[in-house]
Design a protein that fits this description.
176 residues, alpha+beta, globular
Length: 176
């Protein structure tokens, strides 16, 4: 799939077929996640791959109402920050680095014929703490987002969206 086509046609998928995602595709998703830029090449992300239905259901409950679609997903990837690996002068860059990895997972899923939905966890600390407790994460591993992944239950949209808004663009400073 051509890059711009992938960007313009990717949509959040919230219902999935009951078929599992193949291991080679899971590895491609993770490879894509780790291919994005990150602050000073800290590579502070960690990825927890979940295929167990009971764990997916518990993750859905831990992440609240918008995450209930995890109960019908065959796969989730929890994107986390390893605070021990973060850029020491500004460790908060982990949020950006993990977001880039999550976006790469969503784009790679689309390119592989899969659907994905990015479910925010951080900065809602009750969700962060619930995911960390559920998966017995050590204190230095901070959940950032959950990506629900699977084969879409309906055909994906083929038409590209044009969401360009020139009023949001300012050249050489703020112009009114």
């Amino acid at each position: 799939m051509e890059t711009l086509q992938a960007l313009y046609t990717r949509r959040s998928v919230r219902t999935f077929q009951p078929r599992p995602v193949e291991e080679d595709k899971i590895h491609e998703l993770l490879k894509a996640a780790m291919s994005g830029p990150c602050c000073v090449n800290a590579r502070e992300w960690e990825f927890i791959v979940v295929t167990d239905h009971d764990t997916l259901c518990a993750m859905a409950d831990a992440n609240g109402r918008p995450a209930q679609l995890l109960k019908g997903a065959p796969l989730a990837i929890l994107v986390c920050a390893n605070l021990n690996e973060a850029f020491k002068p500004a460790p908060e860059y982990y949020a950006i680095d993990c977001a880039i990895a999550a976006q790469n997972i969503c784009l790679a899923a689309h390119a592989l014929g899969l659907g994905a939905c990015w479910l925010g966890t951080w900065p809602q600390m009750q969700r962060v703490e619930a995911q960390a407790e559920l998966l017995s994460l050590p204190a230095h591993i901070l959940p950032q987002s959950v990506i629900a992944i699977g084969y879409p239950s309906t055909a994906p949209a083929e038409a590209a969206r044009d969401l360009y808004d020139p009023s949001k663009v300012h050249f050489n400073g703020w112009n009114f």
